[in-house]
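Reply to dn_fold:

You asked what the input looked like. This is it:
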Amino acid sequence: MTSTDASTSLAGTPVPLPVPPRTALGAARRVVVKVGSSSLTSLGGGLDPSRLDAIVDALAARRAAGSQVVLVSSGAIAAGLAPLRLVRRPRDLATQQAAAAVGQLALAQAYGESFGRHGQLIGQVLLTADDMIRRAHYRNAQRTLERLLGLDVLPVVNENDTVATDEIRVGDNDRLAALVAHLVGADALVLLSDVDGLYDGDPRRPGSRLLTDVDAPTDLAAVRIAAPGAGSLGTGGMATKITAAAMASAAGIPVLLAAAEQVGAALSTDQDGPTVGTAFRPSGRRMSARRFWLRHAADVRGRLQLDDGAVAAVVGRRRSLLAAGIQAFSGEFDAGDVVDLVAPDGTVVARGVAGFDAGELPALIGRRTRDLAPEQRREVVHADDLVPF
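and this is what came back:
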């Protein structure tokens, strides 16, 4: 047994050490892969069949090696440009939606034909912000993806750009990929880009250094992010990829950021894992789907301002929030809606599900439980429905 396999406790019992992130990426049984518009298309020619086939070949090889794969793919709007004779990504919403409507069909057909070369059936899953911020929709998406994987179907996930106006404005399939990775209980997330990893500065400038590994969020302190190019087909950038990597790694999922041109190496199942790109070590533990939804995908409807004692109880001791610890509130929300919990200085310290309507709170806040009517003697936010930040 080598030093990388285990350490020894005071009692002499071997204690397993954490698996290196690249090893975990190579051994992952369920992988979410995200590919951006610039990796699939060109401004003049729409979808690039050779680029798409190369990505599909690598995904099929990973499937053949025994992994389940979920693909989160951008490219619908970009794929619609050439058929509509548009020379650049439109700025107005109606034309973006029109391009998405045309391009989504072209993208799905191209993926279907390319995966068909490997005998792999695919299923298209279009998601909107609503599907990720509403609990019932979130659970439905989770069940659908799980069933597709159980039927040996490779899901191809995309934002529903045709109708989701917020999604088009944000254009953040990187964040969507992190949400999907947790949604399906993925063992790894691979973000493919037109850059071969994360640099500490603009990779187009001399002196910028590739970061091969990010072991903790503090490693990102010195990173300076370059703005996306003016001719970019997508609306994301390195900042959204770092956010997605931070979301996934904080939930216990190792992440690799690599170039789409290196997709085969990025999906390597070698014993030591992929040798390309930037690997992000998981910085947190796996959390339940409900807690992850609360932290990253919930639609926040209001705010509850806590006193110092309540902050200590909620954050430090992971207790439920009682009415006595609330100083004020804002927003129009019903019982069951998600609210932010804020400290006296305005800092958001937690997020949770409200147990009362906003209209009920004026008669409750600041009062001890024993002073309330029997039907009101319950938690304003229960500990099981609360995520401290």
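Confidence is low (pLDDT under 50) at residues 1-11, 166-171, 229-236.
Hope that clears it up.
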